[in-house]
Amino acid sequence: xxxxxxxxxxxxxxDYSARVGKGDTVEIKGSSEAEPLxxxxxxxxLARGAHPKIKVFMPHADPIFYRNANDEQLAYVWETDKxxxxxxxxxxxxxxxxxxxxxxxxxxxxxxxxxxxxxPLMDLSMQRAARGEFRWMVTLFPTEAHAMDAxxxxxxxxxxxxxxxxxxxxxxxxxxxxxxxxxxxxIQWMEGRNVVHIEGEGTDLYLEVGGRIWLPADGGExxxxxxxxxxxxxxxxxxxxxxxxxxxxxxxxxxGIRLEFDGGKVVDATARKxxxxxxxxxxxxxGARILGEIGIGTNYGIKEFSGExxxxxxxxxxxxxxxxxxxxxxxGVNESAVHWDMVxxxxxxxxxxxxxxxxxxxxxxxx
Length: 367
Prior knowledge:
The chain is α+β, with helices and mostly antiparallel strands and about 375 residues long. The chain has helices at about 5-15, 35-45, 60-70, 70-75, 80-85, 110-130, 145-150, 155-165, 170-190, 275-280, 310, and strands at about 25-30, 50-55, 90-95, 135-140, 195-200, 205-210, 215, 225-230, 240, 245-250, 250-255, 260, 265-270, 290-295, 320-325, 340-345, 350-355, 355-360, 365. The strands form four sheets. The protein has an eight-stranded antiparallel beta sheet with strand order 13-12-9-6-5-17-18-19.
């Protein structure tokens, strides 16, 4: 018997999020664990007259690749991948891990080679998305691995995930449109303002956003969603921030991160666990030490850390900052092969002010 929550999620993703239409070229990517959702999306794309292509990953292939590939193989980019970046209309990527830590013991310099080689493709995709030529969607299919990271049973995790997606509402799309209205009010309040001050335990950080474009995340590129975000001015970040939760990148969890900024750049970085991986990633390229994004989490249906950034960066009452590449549509100009989101919890004594006016206090939005 089909899980009707998967069917409803596929409806939302195809029609509301990606707006798939006749003639669209569509790629649907995910591990074999996500087969029910992959097929549900595939069926709907066909029904709407699109040209969908399924790309299924073997769950345990990545560690084999990073252990055995030589430098030439690590940096190789298939011509088919270049064509996809240049021509796809829509891409669905479904996070569906069987082991979220399987790259933990891989030399961190090896994935960096692959990231650097694929940076032109990432840049092209982001530029096309900013011009409205390409629509992308990242979502998740609940697996035992994600449930274990969140310290839940699979049943509990499925309820947690689908609850955050609002799929059990009578009219989920109507609910997401209400989210969009709230985000628009926040963005209107942000217009014309510049200095963002984030305060919390171990955190006293100033960013500037004057002239940048705040963007709403209402389910168009991520699902579930719930944030507003922009690209900070690249030379203006100053102060320090301590991240509340482990920051996971490339399957490696870095805990107890503290970053010191001056003149827009990370000038000092420490971590309680996997500090070497943190430093090597920040040294990927010059842009990896500069902030490419500030996002304010607004999804109060996500109440706890789960170990999956797709969800964790949306937690209502948090702020996340990404080192590395900016989204061009925000007005940000930072370039990097890295885009690493790190989440700071402000629900216990934290606050955000903008030009001195309060935006968030103890995790509660005041706008």
